[in-house]
Write a structure and sequence with these properties.
This protein is of the alpha/beta class. The chain folds into two domains: 222 residues, Alpha-Beta Complex (Spore Coat Polysaccharide Biosynthesis Protein SpsA, Chain A), CATH 3.90.550.10; 128 residues, no CATH class. 54% of the residues lie in helices and 13% in strands. Helix 5 packs parallel to helix 7, helix 7 packs antiparallel against helix 8 and helix 8 packs antiparallel against helix 9. It is elongated and about 85 Å long.
Length: 384
């Protein structure tokens, strides 16, 4: 398994040498993995890149890519793409260079990957996880970003820590499904946005508790220091806009789901009406047949439109998934038929359309639960 550690840097000469030393030590102690240490430097004027180049002369597993300084998000996108395309990474582990997150936790992250999880987050907000040495400003900044915007406004609830750089991500079938070349994110908002995008392709998340400590060397880039003020303000507004964008995308998906459901309702209602009025079918039987036609419509439209990010295209998977969809939707058919039958028995057949509408409402609740838990899974999280 090729594991690529991605370390974005800007003016980190005090830390980069020690970080590469620690990472090399971890690699030696864990020979079951093939480690590559990729430094993504944004043309640091302090000589960070030269330190990395000196390391490259004695360690072939150290790599360096340089680019114009735009922001953390752009650097990480560049690093992710390079790790995928040029280094054939099986797993990537981005981390900060300042030792705020302990790199010694890397084996613990990989252990969970080996257990079958796709995204393993080093979290400050589960179990014994915590932060140490933060100023009031950093604490408030993190609370507003992580709790107010990422959790409540964006609605990203598959993890509790949305903004840490330190995480392990499986590449094949997970990260490689995200079109990195289409992402246009400059700042630290990339952290929460990549969690959201990953949640669209996998539900196998895990969080391990870690302690986040304030850097002991070098300058923090999240501050009102005049050198970084402009970038920080830009990143704050970008972060807020990304969270709002995520909420809109989620709302749009719900709108699509509702639209597909309405189309299915029309198909079901017309079938019921035609079979009862023209063919003289009993209302319960006509309801069941109409529901089956609606199921075909719902499956097709949901697969290729509502949940297009997880759409099933392989024929060998499509057929079994359709039968699974039918089985999970069977509950809705039974609910509708029983409601109509009960209505007929209690109040007579004259109000069968009213019973049908009520049965559809109950069936919709059942379907939404089954779709999101078994067909197009929504992300869930496990933690220690």
């Amino acid at each position: 398994m090729i594991v690529v550690n991605i370390i974005p840097t800007y003016n980190e000469k005090e830390n980069i040498g020690r970080m590469l030393e620690v990472l090399s030590g971890i690699a030696k102690k864990n020979p079951k993995y093939k480690f590559i240490h990729l430094v993504v430097d944004d043309k640091s004027p302090d000589g960070t890149a030269q330190i990395v180049k000196d390391w490259m002369k004695k360690n072939k597993d150290v790599k360096l890519i340089e680019g114009k300084r735009v922001g953390l998000g752009e650097a990480l996108i560049r690093g992710y793409k390079y790790a995928e395309d040029e280094l054939a990474a099986d797993v990537i582990i981005p981390n900060d260079c300042d030792f705020s997150f302990e790199p010694q936790k890397i084996p613990a992250l990989l252990e969970k990957i080996d257990e079958g999880f796709d995204v393993v987050v080093a979290s400050r907000h589960v179990g014994t996880g915590k932060t140490e040495g933060w100023s009031l400003f950093r604490t408030l900044n993190h609370f507003v970003a992580n709790e107010l915007f990422a959790w409540y406004i964006a609605g990203i609830k598959n993890v509790h820590d949305h903004n840490g750089n330190f995480k392990a991500i499986r590449v094949k079938g997970v990260l490689d499904k995200i079109p990195m070349n289409k992402l246009r994110i400059k700042g630290f908002g990339f952290q929460c946005y990549i969690i959201y995008r990953l949640s669209l392709v996998t539900d196998k998340f895990f969080e391990i508790p870690v302690t986040f400590t304030f850097r002991q060397a070098g300058e923090t880039k999240i501050s009102f220091n005049k050198r970084y003020l402009k970038t920080y303000v830009r990143d704050v507004f970008e972060y807020m806009s990304l969270c709002i964008k995520i909420r809109i995308e989620k709302s749009l998906q719900f709108f699509k789901f509702a639209t597909v459901g309405f189309i299915g309702f029309i198909i079901n209602a017309l079938t019921l009406r035609l079979l009862v009025e023209l063919v003289n079918f009993s209302p319960p039987l006509a309801t069941a047949l109409g529901a089956q036609l609606a199921i075909v419509s719902n499956f097709t439209l949901n697969n290729f439109w509502t949940f297009s990010q997880n759409k099933i295209t392989s024929f060998t998977k499509l057929i079994p998934k359709f039968f699974q969809f039918n089985l999970t939707s069977l509950g809705a058919i039974i609910i509708q038929a029983l409601v109509v039958a009960l209505g007929d028995w209690l109040f007579g057949e004259s109000l069968y359309m009213l019973y049908f509408v009520f049965g559809v409402g109950l069936g919709l609740i059942w379907n939404y639960f089954m779709y999101t838990h078994f067909i197009w899974k929504t992300a869930k999280n496990k933690k220690e």
